[in-house]
Design goal:
The chain has 425 residues and is an alpha/beta fold. 57% of the residues lie in helices and 12% in strands. The chain has 16 helices and eight strands. An eight-stranded mixed β-sheet has the order 3-2-1-4-7-6-8-5, with helices on both faces. Strand 2, helix 4 and strand 3 (103-107) form a beta-alpha-beta unit. The protein is globular.
């Protein structure tokens, strides 16, 4: 079993080299945030003209809430223009969006499926109908709800000269069950201890699905959204970082989105993400590697983002089991391999427990559920993350495809369910 021990040692070294820096991010927001906030407050924010881009597929249950929260922004409404692309809708999403005051376009295409193609269509319409363009374009998913100061906070960061800005991602339904809590806790950690830390250290953040802004200069450079991989947000981030741009973070721009609550829906969504990471690594991996050798920390950081630790964990488990079986056939004890896998899983559980615990404690007031659930879901968070292991394995073999995620958690439903909770929307 010497080969097994040496293999595990090599894997442990790779883990250490690849991901230790993310633990070093943890104290950064608490050491540097006040100083950075004071400098930002001293700068005068320039008003900008924004186009809000919403791609919606059968989102009649939630689309009015997003548009309502946009209409309730403290930002000058004359500078805010809301556009909805009703994408292959079979319900009344377009009618509801029009009634709420949005300009609506419709698209019917069952071949080019996905958010990337929908955004491309919407931006193509704006190119024709609004040739003067806008200063910036802000992308939301239909299930989002925004804090009243969201646009103003994004504008403050945009006014500092950044071409791309992302925001703080919170959850509408953290307390529904361990699955929704697992998603939400990961996104909270990503916002505070990845993107916020990156921004404070002067390196590039990454766009995470929804709630991001890009400038007219970016649009003119890329054309109407040519990003069509399964994780078009990561593809966009990597592409812009390779162009030398930095994605900034607006910590006071808070949005809430809905997380899946069934394992089947979660599996399908995270399978798409895992396959999308592999697609991005396939298309951009070589260029990221060249960027690393040129000294770009952002390229290294994004390389770690698109090849998540759970891919390496999956490989480690398979190697351990394979070498264990080979060793057993040669007369060794198979239990050594199972003990090795068990120790690795225990270490992963404890690491994720610490990460989840730190995030829960520091973001306690941002998490909108009961104290008991906040506590319990710290312990289920590692279990949720463990489910990425079979997903990462299956992603290598399943056919990539995009499927929509159904959203049902409306603001009215939240208010009726959480009467004692002070909600920001």
């Amino acid at each position: 079993m010497d080969t097994l021990r040496m293999t595990n040692y090599i894997i442990a070294v790779v883990f250490f080299v690849c991901y230790t820096y993310q633990f070093l991010y943890i104290p950064v927001p608490w050491l540097l945030a006040k100083r950075k906030a004071a400098k930002a407050a001293a700068l005068e924010a320039t008003p900008h003209n924004y186009a809000v881009l919403i791609c919606a597929r059968n989102e009649s249950a939630v689309i009015a809430d997003l548009i309502g929260s946009l209409r309730s922004q403290t930002y000058d409404q004359s500078l805010l223009h809301i556009f909805v692309l009703a994408d292959n809708c079979t319900d009344d999403t377009s009618d509801i969006a029009r009634s709420a005051g949005a300009t609506v376009y419709e698209r019917f295409n069952n071949v080019q499926v996905g958010k990337g193609y929908a955004l491309q269509t919407l931006l193509g319409h704006l190119e024709q109908d609004y040739p003067a363009g806008f200063d910036g374009y802000i992308v939301f998913d239909a299930d989002n709800i925004l804090d009243p100061g969201y646009i103003a906070a994004m504008n403050r960061t945009f006014s500092q000269g950044y071409d791309i800005v992302t925001s703080y991602r919170n959850s509408k339904n953290y307390g529904d069950n361990w699955i929704s809590a697992g998603y939400a806790l990961w996104f909270l950690r990503e916002s505070r201890y990845l993107n916020h830390a990156r921004s404070l250290l002067g390196t590039s953040c990454a766009v995470s699905g929804t709630g991001f802004l890009f400038s007219r200069a970016v649009l003119e450079e890329t054309g109407p959204w040519p990003f069509h991989l399964l994780t078009e947000d990561i593809q966009f981030s990597v592409h812009e970082i390779l162009q030398g741009r930095k994605v900034a973070f607006a910590p006071d721009a808070v949005l809430y989105d809905e997380q899946p609550t069934t394992f089947r829906q979660s599996w399908r969504q995270r399978m798409r993400w895992s396959q999308g990471y592999l697609q991005v690594f396939r298309d951009y991996g070589a260029r990221l590697l060249r960027g690393i050798f040129r000294g770009s920390f952002s390229c290294f950081d994004m390389s770690m983002a698109i090849m998540p630790a759970f891919v390496l964990s999956t490989v480690s488990i398979l190697v351990n089991l394979t070498l264990g079986v080979v060793g057993a056939l040669a007369g060794d004890n198979l239990l050594v391999a199972f003990e090795s896998v068990g120790q690795m899983l225990l270490n992963m559980y404890l690491t994720l427990l610490v990460l989840g615990g730190i995030t829960t404690v520091t973001e306690w007031n941002q998490i909108r559920t009961s104290s008991v659930k906040k506590f319990v879901y710290v312990f289920t968070f590692p279990l949720f993350m463990f489910t990425y292991i079979p997903i990462s394995l299956a992603a290598f073999f399943c056919k990539p495809q995009w499927k929509p995620i159904e959203h049902r958690v409306s603001a009215a439903h939240l208010r009726s369910r959480d009467r004692q909770e002070v909600l920001p929307f």
